[in-house]
DNA sequence: TTTTCTCATAATGTCGACAATATAGGCTTT
DNA sequence: AAAGCCTATATTGTCGACATTATGAGAAAA
């Protein structure tokens, strides 16, 4: 799953996390209307809490809100997926560039070690680690950029949408070993402090990933 | 001012716009604590609407919220400005690329006309049009990308922070004619449907702009 | 039968009150 | 006098009730 280092303080936090998970996992289906009263009875909290949770979901682009009408879970579409990956390409490309500039030698070494361990596990046939490893890799690059805007937009926002597409469109997909090679090349560029190359490789990595998903969509 | 095509439906909308403007313009100073009770009496609305407004400000990164403590207006810093422009470079670069791909011939022609009229007005000495023209130009590129994520992150989010830095650090600045040339080159690339060049030029344009601001900050 | 208007209903928006939490100031203790 | 604890107070978090708005069913008119 997603590494959950965010912890719920208030009741609204908890409700937000639960709702977000239910939406990403498809328990609450795409396009579904979110009734405040209904959810408040279901989750056993007041409407104010549900309202705040829904507002936060809206900032993640997981739901869309209309004044005096209500909120609906975002509709998944091929165009939406393309747009999502266009933004990922821009932001994560920059994140890789900044990671090459700002990550400490220790952080880079840790990331290299991570790749090794994931590679061994995947080689041993544990397909679970493919997804988890990919997620972990991208998280480290983004946080390595030390850019608070990049971190919040990607980790608090877009990544949940990415996961939603993956889960609901059944993206377990191959592309395992090739993706690993791409990860390895990116980390090498970062280790060499080659900002330009790191950005280019990350952008191509995401572009390939998008093409792969699009191909599946069209075949289905 | 900012072209305000967003209209307030609910009371929370109105309060949000007022608060946002007061923060950007510095009426509520950077770093200031936002008391819910205080603001609710000042703006003559209930605490619930102030709360919702503050939450929305938090999603714009104009205030920072801590559970059980409250919200403070974001602190402006040289590092924050650098990070802001790093993200702008990535996102607006991609926006220019997509604008070259998706903008209609009519939209491009309109943008060229806009540049002409702004050039004439600035040549006539109306310095107000420098800022307004720059804002308008960047808005058109972003909306021209037809990418809803780019549009919302930039226009609903980062641009208000950009304006806040401009206003409060006194960025009226020269760089008028050179910026105009850069705008012209970018539009030409878009008109030629040269995605690669449009992105590169936009990124350099924003990079120059950042360097210019940094220079001023260091001199002050 | 189709269209339009009206109204009932159910949802969202707003409000004031209460509960839970953080913080500052004073008090005790060493 | 300094440090730590504790209480008073003010702020945020949560709640249920009321106000306002959108929407669909049904009646009336063409």
From TrEMBL, chains A, B:
<dbReference type="InterPro" id="IPR000524">
    <property type="entry name" value="Tscrpt_reg_HTH_GntR"/>
</dbReference>
<keyword id="KW-0238">DNA-binding</keyword>
<feature type="domain" description="HTH gntR-type">
    <location>
        <begin position="9"/>
        <end position="76"/>
    </location>
</feature>
<dbReference type="Pfam" id="PF00392">
    <property type="entry name" value="GntR"/>
</dbReference>
<keyword id="KW-0805">Transcription regulation</keyword>
<dbReference type="Pfam" id="PF07729">
    <property type="entry name" value="FCD"/>
</dbReference>
<dbReference type="GO" id="GO:0003677">
    <property type="term" value="F:DNA binding"/>
</dbReference>
<dbReference type="InterPro" id="IPR008920">
    <property type="entry name" value="TF_FadR/GntR_C"/>
</dbReference>
<dbReference type="InterPro" id="IPR036388">
    <property type="entry name" value="WH-like_DNA-bd_sf"/>
</dbReference>
<dbReference type="InterPro" id="IPR036390">
    <property type="entry name" value="WH_DNA-bd_sf"/>
</dbReference>
<dbReference type="InterPro" id="IPR011711">
    <property type="entry name" value="GntR_C"/>
</dbReference>
<protein>
    <submittedName>
        <fullName>FCD domain-containing protein</fullName>
    </submittedName>
</protein>
<keyword id="KW-0804">Transcription</keyword>
<dbReference type="GO" id="GO:0003700">
    <property type="term" value="F:DNA-binding transcription factor activity"/>
</dbReference>
